[in-house]
Amino acid sequence: MSEPVEPLPQGPPALRLHRELAAIWATGPGLQRLAAVNHSVVGMRMMITSFTFFAIAGVLGMLTRVQLATPNAAFMDPETYNQVFTMHGSMMLFLFAIPMVESFAVYLTPKILGTRDFAFPRLTAYGYWCYLFGGTILTVSLIAGVAPNSGWFMYTPLSSNVYTPGINADVWLLGVTFVEISALSLAVEIVVSILKVRAPGMSLDRMPIFGWYILVTALMMVVAFPPLILGSILLEIERAFGLPFFDPTRGGDPLLWQHLFWLFGHPDVYIIFLPMAGVLSTIIPVFAGRPLVGYRAIVVAIVALAFLSFGIWVHHMFTVGIPHLALAFFSAGSAIVAVPTAVQIFAWLATLAHGKPRWSVPMLYVFGFFFIFVMGGLTGVMLAMVPFDWQAHDTYFVVAHMHYVVAGALAFPMLAAFYYWLPLLTGRTAVHRLSVPAFWLVFVGFNLTFFMMHLTGLLGMPRRIYTYRGNEGWNWLNLLSSVGGFVMTIGFALVVIDLFVQLRYGRRVRRNPWGAATLEWAMSIPPAPYAFASIPHLTRSDAIAPDDLALSLARGEGYLGFTRNGWQETLGVNMTTGEPEQLIVLPQPTYLPLFTALATAAAVLTLLFKFYLLALVVALVTAGMFVFSANRAGLARDFGPMPVGQGISLPPHTEVAEAPAWLALICTLVADGTLFTSLLFGTFYLWIAAPNWPAAITPEPSRMLAVFAVAALAAAAAAARGSLRAVTTGGRARGWIGLAVPALLAAIAAAVGLIVDVAPHPSEHALGATAAALLGYVALHAGIGLLFLVSNFLRVGAGFIASRRVLDLRLTRLWLDYTLVTGVIAMGLVLALPALVTMLAARP
Questions:
Q1: Which of 58, 76, 618, 826 could hold 81 in an S-S bridge, CB 3.0 to 4.6 Å?
Q2: pLDDT at 703
């Protein structure tokens, strides 16, 4: 690595600065575009990909409406209808709604927060490729006629081998899990970047409200997705190897799947809603011409909404036989969740009431959102009441409510955001002769489609049916719904046409055409790959004035208004105060995210086609690619504090304690801990509530082997601490790493030995299956610990670890400490199972 180049005292001329930054940050032409890791490129790709999946899912939805437009229709047979219906819901939720939300976050968040990129650009690119390949697997399955056909909710036992013997359900379980890996990795990226990579001086209480919405949403993703991932893994294991987690004849319980699914599913409604609410909180003050009313109240409301959303998942399970006391609790919680939502709506209305609204195209969609979301919220309060839910639960009333809350809350703010930020991308505004009729077609078509479903539901039309006789009184309502669907589709098509017309004939605009006060408008239009030529410093007394700030930043008068060593640089700040703490050197474009995602896709496909030994080999290759991609990350020598502008110098991120990677691992462990907690919940749920317990055979796990496994994990954790202590005092780490590796191997061997001796056999009863799952969790995490140690060994040899650069060793220590704690809990529960079974048998 060459010596750092000191910036010129007055900084280079602006034009030369922009040329140098463009040369450093640009993505190459042709196939080099596949190596892009820049957040703007990845965000745009995600938007285009998610809109493509939206178009496919929309066509599938229209096919269902053709089938249901008239009674006794033969447009589709039941099997085809089930595949189309399942794929419509799955694609809309997993391939459009969540990815579209994340694509907005990926593209806009760094710009709004006044920085150049996310903290981990390669992770962003990996997340996108996983999303693309996972969505492609699901789409190709539809073309091949083996698409999922058990509903987008995949309820057991309908999705078990008994009722779905082919690979249809496996496609959903593996494909959706693949996509969830993408969503989870992007969520971690977003959390860390918002907390650590902002414009200096932007404390949390001064962060734009959009940043708060995205931060809370990403934190919800970190906690909400693991239960679904666990449920998908357990169901796939049941289908592949016969472990009866959900089979009531062998001690499992189908309701466990519903609990795990809705632990994800209900927060997911707010995961979709909150970013779009962030769009509204950003747009409404601009068009009202006054600041947002109740900034702090809104922040409190969205945090409260996030917490409440995790406590009412049983809202979707009122009719499955839940005890009455629990029904009352969850019903009350479902009604209370309307309060923080109302706080936001009244804040928006107050902002409009105290301003002078301009009725531009984005505001038309804001109006549409208010109408539709309030209606969906009212029907949600109705369904929160248990007596009404018992009557309407399995009818089209619920379908209508879901589309008003989820589809309406997403589609209308999304289109408002589309028209609001499109000048930033293109430098042009919409062609009103097309955009206004497009709005009215979408608005009228949406309400015509889904309002009628409330009426068909109240008249008793069950959901998930593929036809009906025609004497029930639903005929004209279904026909109107189908007509409305086609009107809405025409509206969305007109929006797409408007986009292409705008690119060609739209009126050119200058920077910040709306008169906004957020930082994304303080950059060139369209944005350069580096976003800002220099990074702004925000003071508590200054209001953001993008028009004035833009020229100053373009001249290089902020932080990092120069280039150095060909590095892609941005700043890391204190999480709460926003004071600059570190210089973050970002990686250059690389093909590694693409190749690693391809390896991950190969592992998924080998599992799908049941080549399990090959899948194990491919999984090891994938793990090796992660180690390889991390091997050259960071800086290979000490630099000490380096000038970053404004008269201050900061150390690089490799030489500080609070580097982004440290926070990223904490977020990862929070997600992992949620998955582990869900596994514990499943174990206790089956023990307490599942039929056919206790098992005929009382388990007798080896205490000696379990104690040995825990001791080996403790030895590995102690060795990790020893390696960290040795390097910080000027010693060598390889000896300690050499002690930790055999300790982890011994722990894995002990866990495998316990799995082999599990009684009853894991395929015979859920008692053995849950014990095997707990032990497998320990073995898996010990194996991942081995990857950390191998990476440490290689990076020590390459010079990336030294007394001032010990981040790798700190990460390894944290992972092995976590593995030890969860290992103790898992082993303790496995040893306690005999006593729990005895206790269960003794109950009257």
A1: 76
A2: 93
